[in-house]
Fold this protein.
Amino acid sequence: MLHFLSWGRFLTVLFVLAALYYFIIILLFFRKEAVFWLRKRLGLTAAGAVAFGAVRAQDGNVGISQANTMIRGYYDTGTQLLYAVGAVLALIGAIRVFREWNQGHQDQAWRAAAGWFGSCIFLVLVATVIRSFFGL
């Protein structure tokens, strides 16, 4: 036995592993019975939770308004993130177009330039359109 591992800790780990093993065996071989038993037990628990939740229920409009305010607060950060991703894509695209052009594939370089430039413009336009569409 290892010196830093006590017998109590060893028996606890052994008990947890045995319980996990038997739980898996029950799920594999007695799935229908286990599901029926859990549904019966959880049905009573769910009924109690619903009754308790009805007592503590709040107005849904307050929660929706709070979520709306929080999401609108994240928009400026998301816009900056889109601009940063666009800048990284522009750098990667410029390097790829430069490489294609120097290899003598001017036709492919023009296609690559159009694709990369279009993706960067798309990211900037998405941020602008979302701002104007939702009135942020």
Residues 60-102 form the longest helix (43 residues). Helices lie at 7-29, 31-55, 60-102, 106-134. The chain has two domains: 7-55, 60-134. The chain has a mean pLDDT of 76.
